[in-house]
Amino acid sequence: MTQCYTGRNAMIDKPGHRQTKAQTGLKPEVDGSKDSDEADNAMRRRRLLYRCSHSGTKELDALLGGFAKAHVANFDRKALDEFETILACPSPDIYNWLSKREGVPSHLDGPVMNMMLSFKLNI
């Protein structure tokens, strides 16, 4: 019997027949499980990639977008949290920090910010 998942909670085991995971005996995903965490991190990564390419200015889009494409896929939960905190700041501030016109505030000076400051964009 060929089974394929269609959506988060349903499966098809034959044409036209849908079953939920509970009906098939598969363990449903619960919050806190490893699969749920990975799905959450994957969604966060996609959201961050989009945000980095749509920050409001072309210059910052190029800097953040290039950095995100190069590094976000390898970020763990802690790094994703730090990156989201940085992106919550106003775009002009982020641009000034990355262009080294202003110093980075101490509460944002962490591993991800250091990676961003040392990132070289190849244009």
Descriptive overview:
This protein is mainly alpha-helical and 123 residues long. Helix 2 (34-53) runs antiparallel to helix 3 (58-71). The chain has six helices and three strands, in the order E-E-E-H-H-H-H-H-H. A hairpin with a 2-residue loop joins strand 2 and strand 3. The longest helix has 20 residues, at 34-53. It has a three-stranded antiparallel beta sheet with strand order 1-2-3. It has two domains: 1-29, no CATH class; 34-118, Orthogonal Bundle (DNA polymerase, domain 1), CATH 1.10.150. Helix content is 53%, strand content 9%.
Largest sheet: 3 strands, antiparallel
% residues in beta strands: 5-15%
Query: How do the helices and strands follow one another from N- to C-terminus?
Result: EEEHHHHHH
What is the residue-mean pLDDT, rounded to a whole number?
80
Structure described in brief:
By secondary structure, this protein is mostly helical. It is built from six helices and three strands. Helices cover 53% and strands 9% of the residues.
